[in-house]
Amino acid sequence: MKIFPAIDIRGGNAVRLFQGDYDQMTVYSGKPLDVAMHFKERGAKNLHLIDLDGAKDGQMVNFHTLKGIIEKTGMFTEVGGGIRDEGCVSAYLALGVNRVILGTAAVQNFDFLRAMVEKHGSKISVSVDVRDGFVAIKGWQEKTNVEGMAFCEKLRDAGVETVIYTDISKDGGQQGTNLEAYEELAKIKGLNVIASGGISFEHEITALRDFGIYAAILGKAMYSGTLDLATAIEIAEKRVII
After folding, report:
1. Which of 30, 50, 128, 195 is exposed most, by the fewest CB atoms within 10 A?
2. φ, ψ for residue 241 (rounded to 5)?
3. Catalytic site residue 210?
4. What pLDDT does 179 receive?
């Protein structure tokens, strides 16, 4: 299993929100590039980068900050937040982003998602952010009537290879993640599932790995020191002997 430390950017700063609430924000660094380099020094090979301003406003607000991280770290990067048209997708892919994350656009314009998957294949992923079982969009501010698990299957059937599934109620709480959901999601054949939201303990990394989950995103627990990045990577990369 792979580990993706997260860097959420708002106003050029590396921040974390609590359950997607923009009014409950903690600023961790005014230099996101330094944060990324620290993760690399701790053994990270991948980065999960989100433009929070973009997610809320539907524009690439922090593009230049993300550009610096992508160009200078040389790590595998997936980027999301406000990517709602082909121009945004093309701009990030031209920058060297390995995987672009669609969220709101995938829910509101499924034909657009299909077109991007047909054109770019595995470089297109979808963020399925769930509140009370239903997908939320526009920076988690608006809940839809789209059921999360069923939407993941629909995405797989449309050719999407990778989804990032977040239980919003667990995000930023450092009380643990929704392991039951990931155990079910792991049963969807042909879909790489990235677990996100509330991962706080070493035993959760072990459980996700043993379920067959493709990757896990680490956020607040890592920033606060509750979960050590290097240790999480070591656990995630252990081979499971059956």
Report:
1. 30
2. -95, 120
3. no
4. 96
Q: Give the end-to-end CA distance of the chain in Å, rounded to a whole number.
A: 16
Active-site pick, 51, 53, 129, 167? 129
- Per the CB < 8 A criterion, the answer to whether 74 and 44 are in contact is no
Length of the chain: 242
CB 20 within 8 A of CB 171: yes
Q: Is the predicted pLDDT of residue 114 greater than 80, yes or no?
A: yes
Spatial distance between the Cα atoms of 3 and 236, rounded to a whole number of angstroms: 7
Per-domain residue ranges of the chain: 2-236
User: Is position 8 annotated as part of the catalytic site?
Assistant: yes
pLDDT band at 173 (very low <50, low <70, confident <90, very high): low
Beta strands 215-218 and 142-147 are: unpaired
**Could you read off the pLDDT of 198-227 as tens digits, one per residue?**
899 999 999 999 999 999 999 989 998 999
Which pLDDT band holds residue 20 (cuts at 50, 70, 90)? low
Q: Which of 8, 51, 53, 171 is catalytic?
A: 8
Cα distances from 176 to residues 170, 173, 231, in angstroms, run 7, 8, 17
Mean pLDDT over the full length of the chain:
91
